[in-house]
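Colleagues,

For the teaching module next term, I've prepared a clean inverse folding example: a structure given as tokens, and then the sequence designed for it. I'd like students to try predicting residues themselves before seeing the answer, so please don't circulate the second half yet.
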């Protein structure tokens, strides 16, 4: 890859980013009632204490999503939509810790789902709730998810929420679409942008990271909406 001049790069990028801002801030809502419970699953990615409440990789941006994601998860369970909750869970020798600070170690508070979601898991409702520990940034490749997918062949829509938009959300959604495409199987992957986010910090501006991830998701066949209206 060869970059043009810095001035040309920044000028073109400013125009494109302005267009993306307009597009992503005017996305439409989708009625929750439009989902078919027999064909839908809610995939909650990494709403754990280590990203939402405490620890080296926790972010208040993620924490603010705990209540609305739990509200959606409960609504799903109440109408029979299964919920799959990925939970980043590592051991001290996890290779991922070579790229990130130690986080979400097994049997610690950081690896627990946020309390709001634990309450949903304990609720008496027809829709199932399945926690799946994951040892990488891509939950789709976890053996337990592969087993769950095989046991639920009627699911043709994944609603994906959680964090981080540019890491685990992006990887799960794109892998799910690519996996379905290799089999010529139609799979709807729907991301409500009000219920995904990423951390903000030096070298990682959250809004830019979110925009880049949403651009890639949309370009690869993932459907975006603003929110699901209950």
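(Answer key — instructors only)
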């Amino acid at each position: 890859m060869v970059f043009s001049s810095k001035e040309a790069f920044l000028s073109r990028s400013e125009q494109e980013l302005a267009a993306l801002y307009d597009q992503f801030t005017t996305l439409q809502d989708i009625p929750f009632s439009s989902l078919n419970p027999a064909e839908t699953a809610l995939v909650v990615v990494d709403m754990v204490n280590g990203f939402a409440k405490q620890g080296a990789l926790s972010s208040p941006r993620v924490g603010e999503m705990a209540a609305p994601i739990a509200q959606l998860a409960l609504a799903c369970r109440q109408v029979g939509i299964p919920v799959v909750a990925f939970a980043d869970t590592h051991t001290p020798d996890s290779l991922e810790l070579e790229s990130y600070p130690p986080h979400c170690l097994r049997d610690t508070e950081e690896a627990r789902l946020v309390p709001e979601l634990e309450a949903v898991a304990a609720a008496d409702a027809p829709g199932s709730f399945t926690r799946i520990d994951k040892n990488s940034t891509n939950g789709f490749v976890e053996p337990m998810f592969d087993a769950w997918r095989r046991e639920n062949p009627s699911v043709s829509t994944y609603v994906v929420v959680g964090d981080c938009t540019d890491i685990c959300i992006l990887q799960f959604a794109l892998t799910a679409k690519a996996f379905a495409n290799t089999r010529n199987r139609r799979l709807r992957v729907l991301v409500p942008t009000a219920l995904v986010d990423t951390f903000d910090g030096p070298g990682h501006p959250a809004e830019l990271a979110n925009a880049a991830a949403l651009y890639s998701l949309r370009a690869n066949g993932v459907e975006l909406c603003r929110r699901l209206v209950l």
